[in-house]
Amino acid sequence: MTHFINTVNRATSSATAGTQTRATSRIVPALFAVGFGLFLFVGTGFAAPSLIHNATHDTRHSLGLPCH
Amino acid sequence: MFKTIILSAFGAGLAVGVALSVVQAVTTEPLILHAETFENAEPAPAVASAPHEHSSTEAHAHEAAAAPVATEAAAPAHEHDEDAWSPADGFERSAYTLIANLLMGVAVSAVLLGLMTIRGGKIDARTGVLWGVAGFFAASLLPSLGLSPELPGTAAAEITSRQIWWLSTAAASAIGLALIVFSGSWLLKVAGLVIAVLPHVIGAPVPPTLEASYPAALGAEFVAASLVVSALLWALSGLFSGWLYQRLSRSA
Questions:
Q1: Chain B residues within an 8 Å CB radius of A64
Q2: What pTM did the predictor assign?
Q3: What number is the ipTM of this complex?
């Protein structure tokens, strides 16, 4: 699916309205997914509150993330 | 598409979290608990001597071009808020570690699938594991050159400065790596290399002292164990999430 859209995008040299929409419908949700992942990563691995720090302490150390 | 990515990320995160917890239980966790016995038994030399090292630390930080760190450097290496809740040792502590591992698995899977989708191209177990290894390289291996994985009781610069350096270095490494791998022009490839190297030229926040409360061999063992655990986190997240994504998007 993704591959198909990508191929279509590359095949049409002039970006028509149709491919534009399809590229957007691929990129926008993907950006949201990256944002969600980064939010979760920073929340688990970097958040400062002692409560979160203490609960995730061993995971942070194990993964070599900066900790206290 | 967003739904497929998130579903795949959660499915992969579940598997990765369990696998990671099992590996940690026999690699990093015993080392962390061992180091804590030194930390709790005696006033750690690193912590006790930190204020006296202040002047020499400042000189040290100067030459490493990490000047902002110097003022904070005298803070004790280990600052736990004693009043704050923390999980009781044993089952409770392991349970929270498992949850944190699950969340990290979901997070890494979501980032990998999102980036793979933006890039376009095939997403399956094979491409997933390749992206995962690249992610480990950018977000673990290269940052560890400046801030090596630390056992509890390691003297270190102020936490926020290290977190900023770590996140910036991971971002620069990812951008640099992407330029080197995906860009067609040699100029951009060289620019990617420069971006990836830059954080290490600037230098990571310098610890106030090199003393630690635990034996050095323990620290060395931990660095290797931690890098293996990180490599597993990224590679397995890519593997499982790529595989799940392919299956789910085929049936959708």
A1: 140, 143-144, 147-150, 223, 226-227, 230
A2: 0.82
A3: 0.83
